[in-house]
Design a protein that fits this description.
The chain is of the alpha+beta class. The chain is about 45% helix and about 5% strand. It is globular, with a radius of gyration of 17 Å.
Length: about 230
């Protein structure tokens, strides 16, 4: 069955401290409401039924809170998410999802067979390393924010053309068959970005169909940017 929606509390950014070796401590997610990578991890935590606290890191305000020394000590790449869990401090959303999968077996996010696991990872990495980083805020600023729309559309269309072909051979109800996997956790935030960049989604019927099915799931709904405490109204 679908994982239950789990509550989480929000705290202001705190200076770096020692992580106590106590696995009973509730995980802490440093997040930003509209960050694709944070969004993936929020879905994963929800799918696994893991309650967590959120600490928003505003990526724009005051030049970007991710660049403050107190946060750089947690994440030297000045990125979100950062997850503090099980006496560990983890960064990189794909690595975090893999850790949650290995330590929490309920609601598995990878198939049981090696071929299926490889295929799901292929989809996840296509999105997580081949599309999203190319159109993210840091690249847009370097390329020229005045070219934001043109660049974002190019990056997403380039990746979605390949993804549509791939999903045509793997998708059932979701990206890989009829079970939710890590691939789906990566897909939903990327379609959100595509809509922000005014990409014509009619070109990608399989992506659009899978996305619509995923939007019906409570774990995905609870992780949506608009449901986050730090969400900004348009």
């Amino acid at each position: 069955g679908e994982a239950r929606q789990v509550p989480h509390r929000v705290h202001p950014i705190q200076p770096i401290g020692i992580i106590m070796a106590d696995t009973t401590v509730k995980p802490v997610l440093y997040t930003y409401w509209r960050s694709s990578c944070s969004w993936r991890v929020r879905i994963a935590l929800n799918m696994k039924g893991i309650e967590f606290d959120s600490i928003p890191v505003h990526l724009v305000k005051d030049g970007g809170e991710q660049l403050q020394s107190s946060y750089l000590e947690k994440n030297a790449m000045a990125e979100v998410p950062t997850l503090e869990i099980d006496s560990l401090r983890l960064t990189q959303s794909l690595a975090i999802m893999e850790y949650l999968e290995e330590t929490h077996k309920e609601n598995p996010l990878l198939p049981a067979d090696p071929a299926g696991r490889a295929r799901v990872r292929q989809i996840a990495h296509l999105i997580g390393t081949g599309i999203q980083p190319v159109q993210n805020l840091r690249v847009l600023r370097k390329h020229g924010i005045e070219h934001k729309l043109e660049w974002g559309q190019w990056a997403i269309n380039h990746g979605f053309k390949a993804l549509e072909v791939l999903l045509a051979s793997t998708a059932g109800k979701y990206c890989y068959g009829d079970d939710v996997t890590m691939a789906d956790l990566c897909l939903v935030p990327q379609v959100y970005n595509a809509n922000r960049f005014q990409v014509d989604m009619s070109q990608y019927p399989t992506i659009a169909r899978v996305h619509a099915a995923l939007e019906e799931l409570p774990a995905f709904q609870a992780a949506h940017p608009d449901q986050q405490p730090d969400a900004q109204k348009p």
